[in-house]
Specification:
binds adenosine-5'-triphosphate; binds magnesium ion; 6-stranded parallel beta sheet; alpha/beta; 8-stranded mixed beta sheet; single chain; disordered C terminus; EC 5.6.2.4; DNA_helicase_UvrD-like_C
């Protein structure tokens, strides 16, 4: 009888085996979610080591996150033993790029001990350059320049490679010049940013044959996970390294390409077959992760996209339960409902680790965090900060704390010069000295120092204004409801304006978070009660060992799986995002749909989709329409359940109106005045009356009145 399979081949299906055993020549594994692409890559690595086709140091394996790299290392260790200890080239593109660059730094004018700047450092540096060049910083913010430079680096372009057309968008064609200055400055500082880790290495490989040949010899085998999300510089880099031996195996899924906004190019899948002629393409079709209903639901949604490479997926798992679509009244009810479902699951013997809540945008985590804290459900936020720990939230809270608790020195220090108001370190140091000398809090010292001549006239004016502002805000606090006060403070301090002036993609998210903060405040009676709540939340850092519910964005969930996934906020304007809708085009909508596909396919056994009929947006209640993706779920794979009658007919009514799926459906379409009144919104003062509202007044009738206002039509 034939010898038994080595452990790493056991249980693999035929095409997976093929992917593992085809070690020579280019291989592209193109397959849908949950078909074992990552599993096959892991086994392939084990195979190469087990059969001694290569030493651990001769294999380059790229994962999308550090966590995925750790997991792969562990798994291979279990399969073939400790050899993996010495796998120096297993990691993310950035980690591998940094390691290589340290060895050859001098070739691009750096020393091997160069520092890697984070985004904040990068921005500070750009600001200095913008000022030195006497550009108007308000018009041409550092973040915009930073974003532009990143995008060039993602494309593998050094300053001298830019065309005239490339840099028109910044400061009337001075982008290229600023980019060159920035690179020079980095060199002088013996520093580089994240983009340089790959770009410098690419430059070195392009210009130093001996280095290129050294790595082409070294890397007998190259493997890449999540290949659909590689950007150009990564692709060029891989192509150079693999050109000699051509033993490269990439695995990916075009339907899961969700990082085009960061320069990822799904076209790299097509380029692969062109650049590596004769590449073996392997398709995996058996899904081991999800039940047929979950797969059917995901497939139905993604089928609406055009230009797909197309794949078949099947599974042998039991049918399981249909995807549940739950319509709820509003955001708080959504959070409550998810909490209830999780507690029910726990009673049925599931662990908290089995549950994930997947949000489209970071700010959506807040309602769940608050709810879970209230009911004592441990949770973790993956791939981001917990809501109240985000920089802009801490800044805003600092303003509120100085108003409510004038002796809060830390808070004062945090915002004294944020946004910039010409209060340098020197001036702040003087305030500190006076505070220490007289044994008073910083706010008091700030007021007293105005009577001295210790400050420069400019610092004195700024500090005087700030002290005046705080006095006024405190007085306002006596009259205004506290969420309104917060809004005023953020406006009058220039804090909101600071982020509005910021043109980076990230700034919009920060503004959304600030709005979400004000929304959260509406749920508390007083500013004091709210701040008390926040300090309790901040203190809730439970130990790492304990089982926890995971809350994360869909982007961060790529490659992961959970027994039960709650997909929340499936409403037009939330998911697909308002930004995608505003941009209009088919491309951004299709990327949202791929996100929906990624989201659904994270679930192993249970997928629950939630949408709320009302969201508070910028302080106003707005009725929302269920996401078009809800309408795209095949009927046989989902069941709609709603806490209010009329929920199902609601989206049918809404969608039957629209034959063009790309028609502009922005927030609040189809909402009539009657609906607003019924929802408890005062039309004359939609944001007013910051009392805690209760909505338990016959929601069913309210919803039906909306549905009938839009008229019932044919089923979509
Ligand atoms: P994604 O596209 O989401 O990254 P993937 O294709 O990488 O998914 P994996 O995460 O590798 O899929 O595998 C999905 C699940 O299926 C995992 O739990 C894995 O252990 C399991 N699996 C993979 N191959 C097999 C197999 N041959 N037999 C049994 N289970 C398998
Ligand atoms: Mg995977």
């Amino acid at each position: 009888s034939p010898p038994a399979d080595p452990p790493y081949l056991q249980g693999l299906n035929e095409p997976q085996r093929d992917a593992v055993l085809t070690t020579e020549g280019p291989v592209l594994v193109l397959a849908g979610a949950g078909t074992g692409k990552t599993a096959a890559l892991t086994r392939r690595l084990a195979h190469l080591l087990w059969t001694r086709k290569a030493y651990p140091s001769e294999i380059l394996s790229v994962t999308f996150t550090n966590k995925a790299a750790r997991e792969m290392r562990e798994r291979v260790g279990q399969l073939v033993g400790d050899v993996v200890e010495g796998m120096p080239w297993l990691g993310t593109f950035h980690a591998i790029g940094a390691k290589m660059l340290r060895r050859h730094a001098e070739l691009v004018g750096l020393h091997s001990n160069f520092t890697i700047l984070d985004t904040d450092d990068q921005l500070r540096l750009l600001k200095q350059l913008i000022q030195a060049e006497e550009l108007d910083e308000k018009r041409w913010p550092a973040r915009q320049l930073g974003g532009l430079i990143d995008s060039w680096k993602n494309k593998g372009l050094t300053p001298d490679m830019l065309d005239a057309g490339d840099n028109e968008s910044y400061a009337n064609g001075r982008g290229q010049h600023m980019y060159a200055l920035y690179q020079e400055r980095l060199k002088a500082l013996n520093a580089c940013d994240f983009g340089d880790l790959l770009l410098h290495m690419l430059t070195i490989l392009r210009t130093h044959r001996e280095v290129l040949e050294q790595y082409q010899q070294r890397f007998r085998y190259i493997m890449v996970d999540e290949y659909q999300d590689t950007n150009s510089v990564q692709y060029l880099w891989l192509r150079l390294l693999a050109q000699e031996r051509k033993n490269i195996c990439c695995v990916g899924d075009d339907d899961q390409s969700i990082y085009s906004w960061r320069g990822a190019q799904v076209e790299n899948i097509l380029k692969f077959e062109k650049d590596f002629p004769g590449a073996k393409v392997i398709r995996l079709e058996q899904n081991y992760r999800s039940t047929p209903h979950i797969l059917g639901a995901a497939s139905g949604v993604i089928a609406q996209n055009s230009g797909r490479l197309g794949k078949t997926l099947w599974t042998e798992l039991d049918a399981g339960e249909k995807v549940r679509v739950i319509g709820v009244w509003d955001g708080p009810e959504e959070a409550r409902r998810v909490g209830d479902e999780i507690e029910r699951g726990q009673r049925d013997g599931k662990s908290l680790d089995d549950f994930a809540i997947l949000v489209r945008a970071q700010h959506q985590t807040r309602e769940f965090e608050d709810r879970f804290i209230a009911i004592g459900l441990p949770y973790r936020i993956v791939g981001g900060f917990r809501f109240y720990e985000r920089a802009e939230i801490r800044d805003a809270l600092a303003y509120l704390r100085v108003v409510a608790q004038p002796a809060d020195d830390l808070a004062f220090e945090r915002i004294v010069n944020t946004p910039k108001r010409g209060l340098g370190d020197k001036a702040v140091a003087k305030v500190h000295q006076l505070a220490r000398r007289e044994g008073v809090p910083l706010t008091t010292a700030a007021a007293r120092i105005l009577d001295t001549d210790e400050l420069t006239p400019q610092a004195r004016r700024s500090l005087g204004n700030l002290a005046g502002d705080f006095a006024r805000w405190r007085a306002m606090g006596e009259e205004l409801p506290h969420p309104e006060l917060a809004r005023q403070i953020l406006d009058e301090s220039g804090y909101t304006a600071m982020w509005q002036a910021d043109r980076s993609a990230e700034a919009a998210g920060r503004l959304e978070n600030l709005n979400e903060l004000v929304r959260a405040m509406e749920e508390y009676e007083t500013l004091g009660a709210f701040l008390e709540h926040v300090s309790l939340v901040m203190d809730n850092d439970a130990n790492a060992e304990e089982a926890k519910v995971t809350i994360m964005t869909i982007h961060a969930a790529k490659g992961l799986e959970f027994d039960t996934a709650f997909l929340v906020g499936w409403e037009e304007g939330v998911f697909p995002s308002q930004r995608a809708l505003d941009e209009g085009g088919q491309a951004s909508l299709e990327e949202e749909r791929r996100l929906a596909y990624v989201a659904i396919t994270r679930a192993r056994r249970v997928a629950v989709i939630l949408h709320a009929a009302n969201r508070r947006i910028y302080g106003q209640w707005t009725s929302s329409i269920p996401s078009r993706f809800v309408g795209e779920l095949p009927g046989e794979h989902h069941e709609a359940e709603t806490t209010m009658s009329g929920g199902e007919s609601l989206w049918r009514a809404n969608w039957s109106e629209r034959s063009d799926p790309f028609a502009d459906v922005s927030r609040g379409t189809g909402r009539g005045p009657g609906w607003q009144r019924a929802a408890g919104v005062d039309l004359k003062n939609p944001g007013g009356g910051y009392t805690k509202r209760s909505f338990n007044r016959e929601p069913a009738r309210v919803l039906e009145s909306k549905a009938s206002a839009v008229s019932f039509g044919a089923k979509p």
